[in-house]
Amino acid sequence: KAKGLGKNQYCVYNDTMGMKEIRKMELEKDLQRALKDKQFYLMYQPKWNVKTNKLAGFEALLRWKHPRLGVISPAEFIPIAEETGHIVPITRWTLEQACIQCKEWQEKGDIHPISVNISIRLFQTDKLADFVQSVLEKVELDPNLLELEITESMVLFDVEDIVRQLQSIRALGVKISMDDFGTGYSSIGLLDRLPIDSLKLDRLFTNDLETPSKRAIINAILLMAENLHLDVIAEGVESREHIESLTQLGCNVMQGYYYGKPMESEDVDDWVKNNKERALDFVANTVSEL
Ligand code: C2E
Ligand code: MG
Ligand code: MG
Ligand code: MG
Where is the EAL domain (predicted)? Predict the structure, then answer.
């Protein structure tokens, strides 16, 4: 009996693998039409500066609304898009869309910097800096309002070339942030060579602040960042405890569900309005306590 069960489990396991493969193949095929059929949209998640008690900007996060399968996470389709090369037109669309949104906010009188995730694949294609410049010109967006988030995996690529490209992008006035810092391929050895402005501490660290060894690592990262004149922003901030610990350690900018989940463009205005009031209340309370 046990043997039979084992055999069944083996079959189920195999079937599951098969389903995954099938889904991947389907997504691969459907990605071809997704842009043309306007199936992508962006969500915006706030970043909060606890020191100034002000909104520090928004991160644009891509979503794919698949006609049959519903909303698909970028964690699932970005790697596929990277394999197939679709990542290039998708990133162009995303970058332009995010810049248009940022410009819209500005025209309404709200200045919120915007961050866009850029796959390292984009550094391997044509001139990324030229493309970023052309989008900024087209949208007439102040380059200082744009930040690109890149990941550590770039250490696997031609570092000299990436450094040059990053320099060209920064020369435009655009900021560069190292996303998911501390996970994956560690780029600590490259940090002093990379022309970047900030580090985003991966949410694994935020979720493990009670562990003394993890605190020690964050402490060291913050110290290193300070000496390298890099700003640090914490991801995955979900609770008051997270904020207290991170502030104690000297991290001042936070992003996570505690402040706001990624939201649709039309919900941003309300969120901003509500949180301006909240920020004013906070300041008023602090002042009255003094
Ligand atoms: P990321 O850039 O590190 O983005 C943060 C992810 O963490 C987002 O997931 C966000 O919804 C989630 N998150 C934010 N706060 C919290 C929190 O407090 N708790 C928890 N548990 N999660 C939180 P999302 O939107 O599913 O994106 C996943 C990843 O997909 C992103 O990670 C980024 O690497 C990639 N991605 C998203 N949009 C794009 C894009 O336009 N282009 C590229 N190349 N990659 C993208
Ligand atoms: Mg990011
Ligand atoms: Mg991140
Ligand atoms: Mg992350």
Answer: 24-276
The protein residue whose alpha carbon is closest to atom 29 in ligand 1 is: 75
Give the residue from 78, 104, 100 showing the smallest Cα distance to 90. Answer: 78
Distance (Å) from CA 63 to ligand 2 centroid = 13
Digit-coded pLDDT (tens) for 223-232 = 999 999 999 9
Closest ligand to 200 CA? Answer: 3
The whole-angstrom separation of Cα 130 and Cα 184 is 29
pLDDT in tens, 116-165: 999 988 998 778 999 999 999 999 999 999 999 998 776 677 888 999 99
* ipTM associated with this complex: 0.97
